[in-house]
TrEMBL record:
Signal peptide: 1-30
Name recorded for this polypeptide: Twin-arginine translocation pathway signal
Family: Belongs to the UPF0065 (bug) family.
Tagged with keyword Signal: yes
UniProt lineage: Bacteria, Pseudomonadati, Pseudomonadota, Betaproteobacteria, Burkholderiales
PROSITE patterns named among the record's database cross-references: TAT (PS51318)
Keyword Signal in record: yes
Keywords (A to Z) from UniProt: Signal
InterPro entries: BUG (IPR005064), Bug_dom1 (IPR042100), TAT_signal (IPR006311)
Length: 330
């Protein structure tokens, strides 16, 4: 065999090996430049952060890359979303977000600083969840009816303050709806995420909190808070005795929120397809599926096109809710 032929054969074998490892090739290039960042728009300790860390652990194993959760709290996820927009579409930066940042925030802010439909590439849907109303275990109400009776007895503004994780969110709009329903001057008090809100609820600085069910679930199971009602069209399998607010005559919030992974617009679609498959495999793991269920969420894989369709439909629902509430962008 001539030297030229041996060189050609060696190159051919290298190329074949590269093709065989094609699923990891671009990811390996990203790894050489540093770990993959998973942006989260909320502080550590909340439900979104917990889900991000669960996904980072298992996707790292599935894809063979290091994934680091990068918390960028503040402005209801706006800061993290803007960070994704300015990131290079090289596969090194993703955003884990629920519907508020993607579907609602652009409709309640005059200058959100991003357009989810043009600046982001949907990658994969992760899970669905519902929001709920909860009180501390020391609260006298054990049922929704008892809560309503307690509500009508209150006159002090501090007793009518409802904590919400972020402003202009599903929880805040629910506070407005409850105020109309029960003819009480309720006030939504926004926090910088669910973690500080939960601290005030547990310390007695707050009487009522409204947030995603995964933020309350472990505390509810430990007997430290009491979930009184959930949004959505049906009861949650993890909390079968807790009624929906639709059962209580509070309708209009039946569209179920969701979590999704997003990348900067312009990213290679072959990269998206690899992450889709990885997410699908991770969500099929019994341990991951059970953990998500324990948080009272539903593992719900969606490919990038399904996630995009779900988000656009959810945006239309919230466009109507925002309009019906007479809410003007801030």
């Amino acid at each position: 065999m001539t030297i030229r032929r041996r060189q050609w054969l060696a190159l051919h074998l290298q190329f074949a090996a590269a093709l065989a490892a094609g699923a990891h090739w671009p990811l390996a290039q990203a790894e050489e430049a540093g770990p993959v960042r998973l942006l989260v728009g909320y502080p550590p300790g909340g439900g979104t952060d917990a889900l991000a860390r669960l996904l980072a652990q298992h996707l790292s194993q599935e894809l063979g890359v290091t994934i680091v959760v990068d918390n960028r709290p503040g402005a209801a996820g706006q800061i993290a979303a803007q960070a994704l927009k300015t990131s290079s579409p090289d596969g090194r930066t993703l955003l884990l977000s629920h519907d508020h940042t993607i579907s609602i925030l652009p409709q309640v802010l005059r200058r959100p600083g991003f357009d989810a439909h043009t600046d982001f590439q949907p990658v994969a849907g992760i899970a669905t969840f519902v929001n709920c109303v909860a009180v501390a275990s020391s609260h006298p109400a054990h049922t929704w009816q008892q809560f309503v009776e307690w509500l009508h007895e209150q006159d002090k503004p501090s007793m009518l303050a409802f904590g919400v994780p972020v402003p202009a969110s599903t929880p805040e709009f629910l506070v407005h709806r409850l105020a109309q329903k029960y003819e009480k001057n309720l006030m939504a008090v926004p926090y910088r995420g669910s973690a500080p809100m939960l601290t005030d609820l547990l310390n007695g600085q707050l009487q009522v909190g409204i947030a995603a069910i995964q933020d309350f679930m472990e505390l509810h199971q430990a007997g430290k808070v009491r979930i009184l009602g959930v949004l959505g069209s049906q009861r949650q399998s993890a909390l079968p005795t807790i009624p929906t607010l639709a059962e209580m005559g509070i309708e209009g919030f039946e569209s179920v929120p969701f979590y999704g992974l997003y990348a900067p617009s312009g990213i290679d679609m072959q990269w998206v397809q690899r992450w889709e498959k990885a997410v699908q495999k991770v969500l099929q793991k019994p341990g991951v599926h059970q953990k998500i269920h324990d948080w009272a969420m539903t593992a719900c894989y969606m490919d990038h096109s399904e996630l995009d369709s779900r988000e656009r439909m959810h945006s239309q629902v919230w466009s109507r809710i925002i309009h019906d509430n007479g809410f003007a962008p801030r």
